[in-house]
Design goal:
32% helix; 6-stranded mixed β-sheet; 7 helices; 27% strand; alpha/beta; 15 strands; single chain
């Protein structure tokens, strides 16, 4: 028996209303095409300067607009849904990049705060990225139960730290959801190799939802949202632009692979 998963790719901008309208439309498309689990990309609700993100975090703390939106989408579409990331106040003037998972009744089942923050110079038009100026790091991995096995969550830059995923494998993980907003320069070089490596080395399915286009004069993302099975096969992959990557995953075959090649049992460190 297979389960159908969807990675939602967006080109979010500075209009909250337009971004939410796009997210709702693409989630509806995924559900109509049979998806049971869907993930939105990082910063799905807003790709904007720091001051706009901080204002959104304060508004979200008071009104829970985005959390209500995600819960309503999950319940109305009967989807398990990972809400990309949204900003929630961290208490030190910064925000957490928070990923919230909802079940098909609209109940929040898990909350993950992005652990690894992207402070880097990548040589693109933006030049410098300093997420730690605006965001506080989380400190706890996230793995939660679902009808599709145990689901883990990691965000964007987290992908470069394989020790995180080994720690997530200790309680057991079957599916990894990765919301991201990879830069065009780094994403075209590294996004897919990192995703395939995480799938292969941990023998897990990966559902990766990226931003994919031009957001401003200085900000471009790499797209390539995809679904990968535990053998590392890319089952569905997008280019640039908004849309839905959709694929069926056979978790019974994944378990059989783990029995034939018991990588986790062979760990020495």
């Amino acid at each position: 028996m297979t389960n159908r998963f969807a990675a939602i790719q967006m080109v979010s901008g500075r209009s909250l209303d337009e971004n939410l309208e796009t997210a709702a439309r693409l989630l509806k498309q995924a559900a109509e095409e049979g998806a049971e689990l869907a993930g939105l990309p990082e910063n799905f609700a807003l790709m904007a300067p720091t001051e706009s993100i901080q204002a959104l975090a304060q508004h979200e703390q008071q009104a829970s607009q985005l959390r209500h939106f995600l819960a309503d989408q999950a319940a109305s579409l009967r989807l398990w849904l990972l809400g990309g990331t949204l900003p929630l106040p961290a208490g030190d003037g910064r925000s957490y990049a928070a990923s919230l998972a909802y079940d098909s009744d609209g109940v929040c089942r898990a909350e993950y705060h992005k652990i690894h923050l992207f402070d880097a110079d990548v040589g693109d038009a933006q030049q410098q990225y300093r997420e730690s100026d605006s965001y506080a790091p989380g400190d706890q991995p996230c793995v939660f139960h679902s009808p599709f096995g145990r689901i883990g969550v990691a965000v964007c830059y987290d992908l470069r730290f394989p020790e995180l995923f080994r720690q997530m494998m200790d309680p057991g993980m079957d599916v990894l959801l990765v919301p991201a907003a990879f830069t065009r320069r780094t994403g075209l070089a590294h996004w897919l190799p990192l995703l395939r490596a995480r799938a292969i080395e941990n023998q897990i399915a990966v559902v990766a939802a990226n931003q994919g286009g031009i957001h401003s004069r200085r900000r471009q993302t790499s797209g390539g949202s995809c679904i990968i099975d535990s053998w590392g096969t890319v089952l569905s992959e997008m280019g640039f632009g908004e849309g839905v990557a959709l694929a069926d995953i056979d978790l019974a075959e994944q378990q059989a692979l783990r029995q034939r090649m018991p990588v986790m049992q062979h760990r020495r460190f």
